Amino acid sequence: MIKHIKILALFLTLSSCGQSANKMKTPENANEMIVEFIAKKKFIEQPYPNFYPGIADEKMRPIFTKKINSIASDFKRVAESKNPTDKKYQEKIGIGLSRFANVYMELDTEDRERVCTYIEELMDIVGLESSNGQLNKFMYGFDPNEMTDKN
Prior knowledge:
By secondary structure, the protein is mostly helical. The protein is about 55% helix and about 0% strand. The chain contains six helices and no strands.
């Protein structure tokens, strides 16, 4: 009996590990919502619900906006593809965040949080549940989910 439970637990673990590569059911209106997302003005003051004060350095707004809109365009291409998967969207997040590498030092904490919020908004549009730790790594320099108790 215990052997059967162990086998069942192993099977469930393995099947859940493979889910990130499975095809996603992208919402029908995702492309329209992404187009609306691209069109909206970004890095502006947002008193509610995020309490974002607006971009710290105004000259960086078009640069950051272009980088976020590139991620949105990447998401749109995945959504329009024949086989959108969690993994493909997560790859686009990684590529998109890497575009901020040359301006990372220009991002203050609120701006980094806003970048993550925009990506989370895109994730919500397509139904992606996880960035696979990439937003944490971008925001904090590490993924707290990867930390283990070394005591």
